[in-house]
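Dear H.,

Thanks for agreeing to be a second pair of eyes. The structure we're designing against is below in token form, covering all 191 positions.
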């Protein structure tokens, strides 16, 4: 998988994180560096750990055999994972209810961990896809970490300045990016 594909898929995966940060930023009267650091740290840690666990799962002989059996090769299985994630994110965005914006200055670590866990499910599944594609593990962890930090910071500030009306759009864009990455990989593989 190329560097551009890894970056695109990482951006797509972290659009859930961006949507959460957007909502949280819209509810704050001031963005404090301490709170921003806490949110960045927790989300990044969860995303990276989930990606690593998904990636390591492909090293288990049963999982590797399953990937080969399902798609006759692991590339097909990986593409199916990314296509499924893209469709899932788009459907989730369509079904999402509007968020009521109200001031909430409390940044609870427990609340952040719950949201980080929820948003990292996609990263876990993508880690499986990346594992079957035998993507450079360290590069993958580095890119998902940097992308997550960036999305939290950008999301918090955009939410703070503009509100969270772009939340649904952000998740839809994330799904479209995942679909685009999967289709691009199919085209590149065929030609």
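And this is the sequence the design step returned. I haven't edited it by hand at all.
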């Amino acid at each position: 998988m190329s560097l551009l594909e890894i970056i695109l898929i990482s951006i797509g995966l972290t659009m859930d994180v961006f949507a959460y940060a957007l909502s949280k930023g819209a509810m704050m009267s001031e963005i404090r560096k301490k709170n921003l650091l806490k949110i960045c740290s927790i989300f990044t840690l969860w995303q990276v750990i989930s990606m690593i666990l998904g990636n390591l799962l492909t090293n288990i002989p049963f999982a590797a055999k399953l990937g080969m059996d399902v798609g006759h090769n692991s590339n097909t299985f990986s593409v199916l994972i990314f296509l499924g994630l893209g469709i899932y994110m788009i459907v989730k965005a369509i079904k999402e209810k509007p968020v009521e914006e109200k001031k909430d200055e409390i940044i609870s670590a427990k609340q952040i961990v719950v949201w980080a866990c929820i948003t990292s499910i996609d990263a876990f599944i993508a880690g499986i896809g990346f594992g079957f594609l035998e993507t450079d593990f360290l590069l993958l962890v580095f890119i998902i970490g940097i992308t997550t930090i960036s999305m939290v910071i950008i999301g918090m500030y955009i939410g703070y300045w503009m509100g969270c009306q772009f939340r649904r759009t952000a998740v839809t864009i994330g799904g479209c990016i995942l679909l685009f990455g999967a289709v691009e990989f199919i085209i590149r593989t065929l030609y």
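Two observations from my side: The radius of gyration is 17 Å. The mean pLDDT is 79.

Warmly,
E.
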